[in-house]
């Protein structure tokens, strides 16, 4: 009976729903539905209508599968909401793993906990309005800096660059950010220095550069001494000793998106010689 | 969306760089960015790329009655639109000032300079003339829209072919493209706009400003010239005071640049004509190159598997044997069943919770260990980023909620229901008030 139900579900979807395991690494488009592995073999007491995701309702769900960015749960399947490549990571404990879509995006959507670079646009009363590239400017209280008190205000002007993290970021409210961590220490956050260059790249490039053991960063560090700040909203602030070096670094980081690693190594070796 | 504000840091950096004669993309003061012209399959459709600024131009024609005071001339109509995909700040109804300014400049450059012979567009004097309509769409804004738009307009006009018409006495015959080949417009000369941006009250000047440079400039001077050094239009905006030597110098530079750009336009038109004649492939699909994004590409790296066997054997030897398998499920209550051994192999719930607190780093190690086994598969290597980089809340929750001390333990069918019992306390404790999704 369960078999019949599973077969019916598959034929209803027609050719639209594919098994997620067959599509790994390929480009998926928004609107596609993906079947999870355990739905192909409907066994045991579970019927095909089970939801194998997230909410742990008793022991009916056998395997927990997490859908990451670019995917949504629709009924008992995964619905793709962004176009890109489908990826999967097995979870070590046998929990079914994570599915997500690697997609290309330049517009940033504020997410709680993200560290971003913002530009102060207004000072009003107790808060600063900071533009972070989202749909609304974030608010930053003047007390959210290390060592700031009511008497001792931080020295922040309109047009300054701020590195902070979001404490509130959802689609219903304006985002709020702070420049201290939960212990009250700055931890690198706060106003970014006066010189240096700010430029914008895609979000995917930032994630690649912030990955552990990123080769690009190591090679760049060997070239010149530099200071660099990455904001998850696609903004990078870089400063080197001379303007020429800063410009070179900015151009390299922007170009890394479209270069293969061989081309990159060539460019770095050429720069290192000169 | 509101336009992204310019920070003090960027402004200072740009002005300092300009004082040192350095531009963001490494150009010289009088250098233009790369101009790329590509044609579509229809006559009169082209895309012009000036660096990253892209403009699409399309020409179309229609037979209409002429204007009353110009009964023997055809009508030229220009329309530039700033598409919302060009910049986040462009919204319908928001960019009116800039739009009006650009449209006026384009009209003056192309219509008042009489680059297209409008007399030849007349079919029947006073009754029927051709109305040529040029539609320009800005696809990407990276500075210097006016130059790109003027190039796109004139290239589209030179590329366009209108249907052939013959007049015999009272009879007017309009031929379809199948009956007679369409006829090109008669273009007298090719005017091109050249923009100069001024900084520090006219001290420094740059040709072809990019978007960042446009933000910090004091004033803009646009000169439309053709290759015969005839000035078609000149406009200065921004309210800066310019000396007459500066204006003369700019006009000389503009003449040189216009000659170069005109040559490029002629070459592009010639190439397209050749390809179409030889029957080769033409159109945007051929000429616009694909760019590859390598951010998500993981290089295949050779993995050192020399001591994997010993490591695996060690781990197997150290772990406890899996508990006895009981195949029948024990039903505790409706909705809770257990398959497997009776003892809880996770150990004490409190003990494992405390261990959980400070084994955050161990998690990463364990995951890396898992990767050693599967690294040769390139497709799986996307996992290298996930535990730390993607700050998606679901990922973190996933790691915490299924604390996994012995991933390499050889388990048989005891996996699923047993896990529910041990971590049932942990989600409550560890949930960091993430929004319920």
Structure commentary:
With 274 residues, chain A is an alpha+beta fold. Chain A has six helices and 17 strands. Chain A has a five-stranded mixed β-barrel with strand order 9-10-11-13-12. In chain A, a hairpin with a 7-residue loop joins strand 12 and strand 13. In chain A, helix 4 packs parallel to helix 6. The longest helix of chain A has 13 residues. Chain A is globular, with a radius of gyration of 24 Å. The N and C termini of chain A lie far apart (73 Å). Chain B is an alpha+beta fold and 437 residues long. In chain B, 32% of the residues lie in helices and 21% in strands. Chain B contains twelve helices and 16 strands. In chain B, strands 1, 2, 3, 4, 5 and 6 form a six-stranded mixed sheet that branches. In chain B, a hairpin with a 2-residue loop joins strand 8 and strand 9. In chain B, helix 2 crosses helix 3. The longest helix of chain B is centred in the middle third of the chain and has 35 residues. Chain B is elongated. The two termini of chain B are 27 Å apart. At the A-B interface, strand 4, strand 7, strand 8, helix 3 and helix 5 of A face helix 1, helix 9, helix 10 and helix 11 of B.
């Amino acid at each position: 009976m369960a078999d019949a139900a599973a077969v019916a579900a598959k034929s209803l979807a027609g050719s639209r729903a594919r098994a997620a395991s067959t599509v790994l690494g390929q480009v998926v488009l928004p609107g596609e539905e993906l079947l999870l592995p355990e739905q192909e073999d409907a066994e045991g007491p579970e019927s095909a209508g089970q939801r194998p995701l997230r909410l742990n309702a008793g022991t009916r769900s056998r395997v927990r599968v997490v859908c990451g960015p670019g995917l949504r749960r629709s009924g008992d399947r995964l619905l793709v909401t962004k176009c890109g490549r489908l990826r999967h990571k097995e979870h070590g404990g046998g929990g079914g793993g994570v599915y997500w879509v690697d997609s290309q995006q330049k517009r940033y959507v504020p997410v709680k906990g993200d560290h971003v670079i913002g530009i102060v646009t207004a000072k009003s009363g107790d808060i600063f309005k900071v533009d972070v590239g989202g749909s609304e400017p974030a608010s930053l209280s003047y007390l959210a800096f290390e060592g700031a008190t009511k008497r001792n205000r931080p020295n922040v002007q309109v047009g300054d660059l701020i590195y902070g993290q979001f404490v509130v970021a959802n689609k219903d409210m304006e985002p709020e950010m702070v420049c201290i961590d939960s212990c009250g220490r700055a931890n690198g956050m706060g106003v970014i220095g006066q010189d240096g260059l700010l430029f914008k790249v895609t979000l995917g490039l930032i994630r690649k550069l912030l990955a552990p053991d990123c080769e690009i960063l190591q090679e760049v560090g060997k070239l010149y001494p530099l200071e660099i700040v990455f904001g998850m909203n696609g903004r990078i602030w870089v400063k080197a000793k001379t303007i020429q070096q800063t410009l070179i670094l900015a151009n390299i980081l922007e170009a890394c998106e479209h270069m293969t690693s061989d081309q990159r190594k060539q460019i770095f070796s050429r720069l290192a010689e000169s | 969306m509101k336009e992204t504000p310019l920070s003090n840091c960027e402004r200072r950096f740009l002005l300092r760089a300009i004082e040192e004669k350095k531009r963001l993309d490494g150009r010289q003061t009088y250098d233009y960015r790369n101009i790329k012209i590509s044609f579509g399959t229809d006559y009169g459709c082209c895309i012009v790329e000036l660096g990253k600024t892209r403009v699409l131009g399309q020409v179309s024609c229609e037979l209409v009655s002429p204007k009353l005071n110009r009964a023997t001339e055809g009508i030229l109509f220009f329309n530039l639109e700033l598409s919302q995909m060009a910049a986040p700040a462009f919204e319908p109804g928001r960019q009116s000032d800039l739009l009006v300014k650009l449209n006026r400049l384009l009209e003056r450059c192309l219509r008042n300079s009489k680059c297209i012979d409008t007399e030849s567009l007349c079919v029947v004097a006073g009754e029927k003339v051709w109305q040529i309509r040029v539609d320009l769409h800005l696809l990407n804004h990276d500075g210097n829209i006016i130059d790109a738009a003027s190039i796109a307009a004139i290239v589209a006009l030179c590329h366009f072919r209108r249907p052939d018409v013959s007049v015999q006495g009272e009879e007017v015959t309009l031929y379809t493209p199948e009956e007679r080949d369409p006829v090109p417009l008669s273009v007298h000369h090719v005017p091109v706009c050249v923009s100069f941006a001024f900084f520090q009250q006219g001290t420094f000047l740059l040709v072809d400003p990019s978007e960042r440079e446009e933000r910090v400039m004091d004033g803009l001077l646009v000169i439309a010239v053709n290759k015969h050094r005839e000035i078609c239009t000149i406009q200065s905006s921004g309210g800066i005071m310019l000396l007459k030597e500066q204006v003369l110098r700019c006009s000389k530079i503009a003449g040189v640049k216009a000659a170069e750009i005109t040559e490029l336009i002629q070459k592009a038109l010639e190439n397209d004509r050749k390809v179409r004649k030889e029957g080769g492939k033409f159109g945007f699909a051929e000429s616009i190159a694909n760019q590859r994004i390598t951010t998500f590409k993981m290089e295949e790296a050779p993995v050192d598997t020399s001591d994997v066997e010993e490591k695996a054997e060690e781990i197997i030897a150290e772990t406890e044997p899996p508990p006895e398998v009981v195949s029948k499920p024990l039903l505790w209550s409706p909705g809770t069943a257990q398959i497997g051994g009776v003892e809880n192999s996770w150990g004490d719930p409190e003990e494992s919770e405390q261990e959980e607190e400070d084994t955050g780093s161990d998690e990463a190690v364990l995951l890396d260990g898992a990767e050693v086994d599967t690294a040769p598969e390139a497709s799986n290597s996307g996992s290298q980023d996930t535990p730390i980089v993607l700050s998606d809340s679901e990922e973190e929750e996933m790691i915490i909620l299924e604390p996994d001390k012995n991933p390499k333990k050889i388990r048989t069918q005891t996996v699923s229901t047993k896990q529910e019992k041990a971590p049932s306390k942990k989600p409550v404790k560890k949930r960091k008030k993430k929004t319920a999704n």
